[in-house]
Design a protein that fits this description.
about 280 residues; alpha+beta; about 45% helix
Length: about 280
């Protein structure tokens, strides 16, 4: 059997030539490169021109300063030339002083003496001028002490007045306290009571209970109501339609202590209770 031949070139990838940029893309790239190079060259030229102009300006200023210095030096030289020196003999003449003229002798003075008619020595008149002596430290201290004493006196007077007011108020309060104490004592005396029990029968005569007498008038066991007549000092009053356990307070006279009547049980034709009377009024 004959061998089979294969074409190996079919399986080998052919080498492709490198791609070249088209001409329509190379043109803008070259233009940009040229534009960048031109800008750089222009910047360098501008920088050199600015440096040269700065150097020229500095040189011109230096030259101007040199000219001003030369002119000032010339003016100083001219001023030195025009200044005239002072002659030496003028100073010597100014130093020579004239001789003092001889002084004439003064004529003798004639002194006249006038004696007073009185032999007493003359008393000089006091001058009208008043000399004010400066305040001494002692005077200042005395004035300070006086002012402090005056302030302390005013404070003491104010304190005394305040104490007098307080004493008056205390006296008034003490009187009020005394009155209140008496009223409280009176109330305490009235509050000390003694209960006197009673049992009233209907139809009987009056029953003495403490400082008065009681008489049963009527009872209502259903409604727990009652009526009682009270006799005292040949007088009588009637307590009508009173309830069970009701505290009935009444006075026998204006100056007497109040009495209390309480019914504790209501039966048929019978009434049980007590009369509260002050201890001092107990017979």
């Amino acid at each position: 059997m004959a061998g089979i031949d294969f074409d190996r070139q079919v399986f080998v990838t052919p080498n492709q030539p490198p791609r070249k940029l088209p001409l329509h893309l190379m043109g803008p790239s070259l233009f940009l490169i040229a534009l960048v190079l031109a800008g750089y060259v222009g910047y360098r030229i501008y920088k050199e021109s600015v440096r040269a102009s700065t150097a020229n300006n500095a040189t011109a200023e230096i030259e101007q300063l040199k000219q001003q210095l030369v002119e000032m030096q010339k003016k100083l030289d001219q001023a030195e030339r025009h200044r005239t020196p002072t002659p030496p003999h003028a100073n010597a003449a100014s130093q020579v002083q004239p001789e003092a003229a001889p002084k004439k002798a003064a004529p003798p003075k004639v002194v006249y003496r006038v004696d007073s008619a009185s032999k007493m020595p003359a008393v000089p008149k006091p001058t009208a001028s008043v000399v004010t002596a400066p305040p001494s430290p002692a005077n200042e201290n005395m004035a300070a002490v006086r002012s402090e004493l005056a302030a302390n006196h005013e404070a003491w007077q104010a304190t005394t007045d305040r104490v007098a007011d307080v004493v008056g108020v205390v006296d008034t309060q003490q009187g009020e306290i005394t009155k209140t104490r008496e009223a409280v004592s009176h109330l305490l005396a009235q509050s000390q009571r003694k209960a006197v029990s009673f049992e009233l029968q209907r139809g009987t005569s009056r029953m003495p209970v403490g400082p008065l007498a009681l008489k049963l008038k009527s009872v209502d066991t259903r409604n727990q109501r009652y009526s009682v007549r009270i006799y005292f000092d040949e007088k009588s009053i009637e307590l009508k339609d009173r309830a069970l356990n009701e505290v009935v307070v009444f006075l026998l006279s204006k100056d007497s202590a109040p009495l209390e009547l309480v019914a504790t049980k209501i039966l048929r034709d019978q009434l049980l209770g007590y009369l509260a009377i002050p201890v001092e009024k107990q017979p």
